[in-house]
């Protein structure tokens, strides 16, 4: 059977670096606290006027170049994001226009928060695998700096901006590319990580804006425990489903939320940290952009070779989770 494969990857991070020391002048925190609790040293922040769609375009162009394709080749665009340029229309449509994708290209956004790229990759591969689409662009992109409460030290130190992208197409070779996925969600935990106001159930009011209720709110401790459990289970499930032992995975690309979460998964899976790609120290949590940025950096650093098995594993607001097994 032919396979749905990743033909190219690209990523983009804004130039502006926001360090922990700078944050310690904005809220009551310290470089030592942030580093020991999260592993984050710095994060990137979009330039004034730089939008989610601008960043998505930069990552997508690099992925197209890497795949040796042009905008004209793409007939499907899936954008994973919780920070579209505006509530309507989809960021995908803005990216389509800026990138010059054909008007016959299907374009839509997908919201699965930090699991968004794994969901979007599965969606694109299923649509490509159906034969109705030929080449897809899958983008994970966030401008979280726009929805952070910069006065809330429990969240503002954790997040950053950026974009990652992959081009998906068919290969005649069997058993390559996306081997399988395991997606799910714990909707009963939705309130643990959410933006309480500004949606249709509770539109913003002057009072709610003054209280910054249109920004991310998170119960960090609860989310931490659920993230470790769900990512460990999603990883184990997909390995079991496909008869793969953890030690056969050459590289795990986990969602980059917190180094301690990644270390816990490394212990539970009994896989050394050398088999985990980590860049949370440089970017913080970029939600849907985190896995595709890491995937692109891992490929460009030569950490993924032909024949390798790679495991993606994610967790995010929803509370969504997802794992994906890839052979290169
Ligand atoms: N600087 C200094 N102190 C801070 C702080 C900061 N930026 N943020 C919180 N604190 C304080 C708290 O107020 C608390 O003080 P108290 O004991 O006087 O009440 C103390 O540090 C411990 O806070 P706590 O929330 O228990 O810390 P923690 O060890 O759970 O770490 C997180 C906090 C947010 C780093 C951690 O819970 C986490 O990473 N959660 C998951 C986040 C995540 O990955 N979310 C996205 C999933 S996709």
Task: State the oligomer.
Answer: single chain
Question: How would you characterize the largest beta sheet?
Answer: 5 strands, mixed
Distance between the termini: 16 Å
Alpha-carbon Rg, integer: 19 Å
Global geometry: globular
The CATH superfamily name of the largest domain is: Thiolase/Chalcone synthase
Number of strands: 13
List all distinct small molecules, including ions and cofactors, that are bound in this structure: coenzyme A
Secondary structure tally, helices: 11
What is CATH's topology name of the largest domain?
A: Peroxisomal Thiolase, Chain A, domain 1
Overall residue-averaged pLDDT value: 97
Q: Structural class per helix/strand content?
A: alpha/beta
**Helical coverage, percent range:** 25-40%
